[in-house]
Specification:
With 278 residues, the protein is of the alpha+beta class. Helices cover 20% and strands 35% of the residues. It has one domain (2-271). It contains 7 helices and 12 strands. Strands 1, 2, 3, 10, 11 and 12 form a 6-stranded antiparallel sheet that branches. Strands 4, 5, 6, 7, 8 and 9 form a 6-stranded antiparallel sheet that branches.
């Protein structure tokens, strides 16, 4: 299983290298996706993503990366909730703006460009950072000044992909924190996972509908301190402060149908457009 996962991640990186192309228009090839097509027992969701990292507050990630990224697609109420949660969220189309394109081409993180597959309509865990020594921010779920305060914390999202109309997908991100819970500590635990607790923040959840040629951009603002988003997308590494940006392309990988099926679904490569992808 580990070997298969390694092969998938490695090959996914090759796919991403061509799909989040810095020159703009790139078409997915049939051969690329044929090797990654799921078995006949069902369709699956896929993510192609990159986590970008620069100095905290740097203009290229804090401002210029958002030029021509549409942040108005969500309702006013949703944007207000996101701002209080410390998250910037937007969508960009097939022609990626130059500054964001350069960041995608040179992410400067260990993770670089990645590829994941998981079940449709079921959340997949996606951690941005950590473990952080200590985090503290207002709980976006609480009705009042309740704060989330923990040590040794990893922050990220439960991410769910659902099928939407007109060949689009709906992507839902639920903010969460995973942390070491002393109450669950087991000194003889061989895998070191049973002392971990997870807390989600439904009040900060959001949904975005993406076409095959659109990218989801998620980040924070360097000035939104003491928020979930700022804690999730900034970190101190050695003696420097960094700020991160997440760029995602999501879709559905169709299972092969029998050739005799009357309603056979076209393979993903024929549905995909020329969206740049990580």
């Amino acid at each position: 299983m580990r070997l298969a996962r390694g092969i998938l991640v490695g090959f996914g990186s090759l796919v991403l290298a061509g799909c989040f192309h810095t020159g703009g228009d790139v078409a997915a090839t049939t051969s690329q996706f044929r090797l990654l097509r799921p078995p006949t027992d069902g369709d699956i969701a896929y993510l192609e993503y990159v986590v970008i990292e620069r100095k905290e507050g740097a203009d290229e990630i804090n401002r210029r990366a958002w030029d021509r990224v549409d942040e108005q697609g969500l309702s006013f109420e949703a944007r207000s909730v996101l701002e209080s949660t410390g998250l910037r969220v937007g969508v960009t189309g097939n022609t990626v703006p130059g500054d964001l394109r350069r960041l995608i081409a040179d992410p400067r993180t260990r993770r670089g460009h990645r590829y994941r597959t998981f079940a449709l309509d079921k959340p997949a865990r996606f951690l941005i950072n950590g473990p952080l020594p200590r985090v503290e921010f207002p709980d976006p779920t609480a009705d009042g000044p309740t704060k989330f305060t923990r040590t040794m914390v990893e922050l990220g999202f439960d991410l769910t992909v659902r099928e939407a109309a007109e060949g689009k997908v709906e992507v839902r991100l639920l903010p969460l924190a995973r942390y070491r819970d002393p109450a669950l500590f087991l000194p003889n635990d061989p895998d070191g996972e049973r002392d971990q607790s997870t807390e989600s923040f439904p009040g900060g959840a959001f949904e975005v509908t993406l076409a095959p040629d659109e990218l989801l951009v998620v980040g924070t603002d360097a000035y939104w301190k003491d928020t979930f988003g700022h804690a999730a997308f900034t970190e101190t590494l050695e003696d420097r402060r960094v700020q991160r940006l997440l760029v995602v392309r999501a879709g559905i990988m169709r299972a092969e149908r029998p050739a005799t099926a009357k309603s056979a679904v076209a393979p993903l490569a024929s549905q995909a457009t020329s969206a740049p992808r990580p």
